[in-house]
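so i finally got all the pieces together for this one. its two components total, 301 residues if u count the protein bits. some of the lines might not be protein, just check the labels. i wanna see the whole assembly predicted at once instead of chain by chain like last time, that was a mess tbh
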Amino acid sequence: MAESESVITQEMKDAIGVESKPTVYSIEKNAVMRFAQAIGDTNPIFTNEDEASKTPYKGMIAPPTFLRSMQHVSTGEDEGRIKSPYPANVDGGSEWEYFEPIRVGDTITSTTYLADVHERQGGKFGNMLIMIRETKYINQNNKTVALQRTTGISYQPQD
Amino acid sequence: MNQTYFEDVEVGSDVPTLRKDPTPQQLVKYAGASGDFYQIHYDVEYANNNGLPGIILHGALKNAFLGQLMTDYIGHHGSLKKLSCQYRGMDVPGTPVFAKGTVVKKYVENGENLVECEIWLENHEGQKTTPGYAIVSLPEKS
């Protein structure tokens, strides 16, 4: 396969390290329960208020990957987000670090920045663009509850 | 719910396996619950047009399975510090996946009893599609 030109633009390079506008998200009981049901997790700390109140958490908390849902809240936060020229996406991986439980009733504010962008030619999906993003989640007490680093892979589908 | 204690854990011991039987319906439920409506997870034709053999599990759903593996393991008195995974292989609905783990390190740091586990998701053919690691803190028996 011939080397093709880089799809990494100056705009992408300039975006590295620039923090997004914040997204604000309320941790609602029913949303947490629905998420737990969807992943098939019956742990009472995620599904049952009475039972959860008898645990050291003294109330319901969200499953560890629940915060991921915040990425899909449509509040116009995609404005200014760097887009890949490739139409297809796969998720490459995720790295979470946790500092505080995510409690039902919390208000979480997240900000994301592009940490790195690079490309790989002739991979499993042909040419791929790989974007590493880091997201910080802060609660209403101004405490960082979690940090997340994700790897997004985009590619041109082959005919 | 079972509680794992720091004293009970040894390097090399297993994290109890969590079996999941994802179906297309579960992928739709996850799409709804997470807000991730990317069509490769429920629309076969769309997935095919993206060079995929069929619909595939959301990476984030597999991440959630590994999260449950660890939250089940640590009980209500432990806490999850780190959870990391890479989506190396695709998983499809209709066949079981198994979340597994093994303890690789046990240590005390800043007064916390920490346990590091190698974790992964395995398909029904025994292939590790989603390797990762987790660090948890566990309570002591008092």
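The two ends of chain B are 18 Å apart (CA to CA).
The interface with chain A takes residues 1, 20, 26, 29-30, 32-38, 40, 49-51, 58-61, 63-65, 67-68, 70-72, 76-77, 79-87, 132 of chain B (CB under 8 Å).
anyway lmk what u think
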